[in-house]
Protein: Cu(I)-responsive transcriptional regulator
Organism: Camelimonas fluminis
Amino acid sequence: MNIGAASQQSGLPAKTIRYYEDIGLLTPDRAGNGYRDYSASDVHRLRFLQRSRSLGFSVEECRQLLSLYGDHSRESADVRAIAKSKLAEVERKLTELAELRDALRHLVRNCHGDNRPECPILDSLAGRGGARQARI
Amino acid sequence: MNIGAASQQSGLPAKTIRYYEDIGLLTPDRAGNGYRDYSASDVHRLRFLQRSRSLGFSVEECRQLLSLYGDHSRESADVRAIAKSKLAEVERKLTELAELRDALRHLVRNCHGDNRPECPILDSLAGRGGARQARI
DNA sequence: CTTGATCTTCCAGTTCCGGGAACCTTATAT
DNA sequence: ATATAAGGTTCCCGGAACTGGAAGATCAAG
């Protein structure tokens, strides 16, 4: 499969896909004409990269996550340790995203879109634990 | 409050906080000595920025989100439209994060960490809809 | 009053791409 | 068969979002 199709199926721009190859995140085959030739598992990796990047993981974190199921030379204990640490981070992100969702839902429900609103109560957007009574 | 305290309370490096000021995301007061002086609501904004950036929103998206509850000159219909569109994106991210969490949980449970594992079934990491039977 | 921590500005470097040039290959239309 | 467009290649430069370091001012402590 050419880079255009891989781009469509992964949701990543061709430019980005070439960049990921440059920094060693995947190494597709080359066809006789010099074109990159993406396998199904290449596209799989690309889709995963698209997702995890859009969820706020750095490229190096993505590399780690990919190694969890790509690297056969890795020790089981390593895999487990990395997975556990990433799991904790994912769970924290889930909590924060859910709070953001709730705040946005509130906003959508309470600001009818017909006139100048009040739309307060987005304090939860900044999470608990910081400055509480802030009125911005 | 000085920038060091604001940094601690928001989780953002002082460098980043100054950068956010440069690009107009907030404008703290200045004390007599020239030091930046952060209010509770400034810290509130900073905490929100830290969160939303770590959840994969671009700086411009964060600016939009902040304007949802900061900008009194904005029309109610605008607020509602932006909130609805961001809400959809947040819900998509929530779904993907939950899938990633499930995959990591599976990994943590099934790879005991004592010997060489098999650890397959991380296909769900790349989500459904793309290459299916990929075995990486 | 000196020392160390923290603040200031400014400039340079890094990461993660995106735009565009210059060129080659493939598919389509005449 | 041939023009033409569409899509591929490398390369290099520019931009977004920081990050590190230098040079200097300020503050809190001994």
